[in-house]
Amino acid sequence: MSQPSTWPIPPGSIRFVLPRRVVSELSQHPLSKDLYPLAMGFYKQASGHGMSRTRHDDFLFIYCVKGQGVLRIGESEHRIQAGDLVVLPKEQIHSYQAKDNNPWSIYWVHCDGTLAPEFIRHLDNPIQSPVIKLGLHSRLAADFESLLDLRKTSQLFQSYLHVCSLLRQILTHISLLQTQARHHFDQSFNMETIQTLMLTRVHETLDIDTLAAAANLSKYHFIKRYKHLTGSTPINDFIRMKIERACHLLDITDQRISEVAWALGYEDAYYFSRAFSKVMGISPSQYRGIRLGKATYKE
User: Fold this and answer.
1) Distance CA 200, CA 211 (A)
2) How many CB atoms lie within 10 A of CB 221?
């Protein structure tokens, strides 16, 4: 593990280091070898806290929930404040410290695993910028607290496996929060209005011109902005909404496939079936077969 801090732990702060034997087992266990913690903690109003590493052989996440700090990487300096997440990949030489006049309170976790680099790549621009502006989220803080609860049952190996699962959950939750933050801060593009329009028109046809007009953008800029925020195209999302509604109708009614297609604005039942199969991977009749006990979720 990277060199630990020698900062004296005051009352109200926590540092928990996993035993080497446990780390070795987690690095080989099929349920944990992809991602597992090495050490974790919470430092409250960490006056005097700081660290400088010329060797960094794991992955470090720091979530600031109060106060301020400074991160230095090479000649770059980053101001850290409440709501910021610091992501430091393996081999990233760095130093950081709490602000003297407003010391930070931080959750932190050192981790490793065969898929740890993939989890970092899944986040938005962690390589280009080590600081992610997440904002304060009580659920995320609660997730970090759940990690620290490990110390209460650290005699059980199953507890360590559970913490590995929680760590995966935290990192995927952060990715989701990033997407939600993009929607929230892009004031020039009201995603809620666009998707509400899609939902209200799910029984009809809807073209790009109408959606772009609702966003007050050209078709080109509307599609580009929408895909940047969601990773999908507006028409693909509209089709997905239609198919989700089709699934609901197939579940709760005995309408024929052609009637379900008509109810969702498809005049051609064959075209509807093709669209359904493309989204769901099975035909509408096969989907209905699940309800009737003629098919399984996988086959």
Assistant:
1) 12
2) 13
Percent of the chain residues topping a pLDDT of 90: 69
Tell me, yes or no, whether 1 lies in a domain.
Answer: no
Q: What is the CA radius of gyration of the chain?
A: 24
- Find, among 136, 159, 157, the residue nearest to 146 by Cα: 159
CA separation for the pair 180, 186 (Å, rounded):
10
Residue 273, domain CATH:
1.10.10.60
Q: Mind listing the pLDDT tens digit for each residue in 149-201?
A: 988 887 889 999 999 999 999 999 998 888 776 655 555 677 778 889 999 99
9 domain-assigned? no
Residue bearing the bigger pLDDT, 297 or 262: 262
CB atoms within 10 A of CB 215: 19
Mean pLDDT of 59-83: 95
Least confident interval from 3-7, 68-72, 134-138: 3-7
- Asked whether residue 6 is domain-assigned, the answer is no
N- to C-terminal Cα separation, the chain? 45
Backbone angles phi, psi at 18, to 5 degrees: -70, 140
Give the domain range for residue 134: 14-184
Residue 115 has pLDDT above 90, yes or no: yes
Sequence length of the chain is 299
Q: How far apart, in whole angstroms, are the C-alpha atoms of residue 220 and residue 184?
A: 22
CATH code at 93?
Answer: 2.60.120.280
User: For the chain, what is the mean pLDDT?
Assistant: 89
Classify burial at 100, counting beta carbons within 10 Å of its beta carbon; exposed 0-12, middle 13-18, buried 19 or more.
Answer: exposed
Asked if residue 268 and residue 226 are part of one domain, the reply reads yes
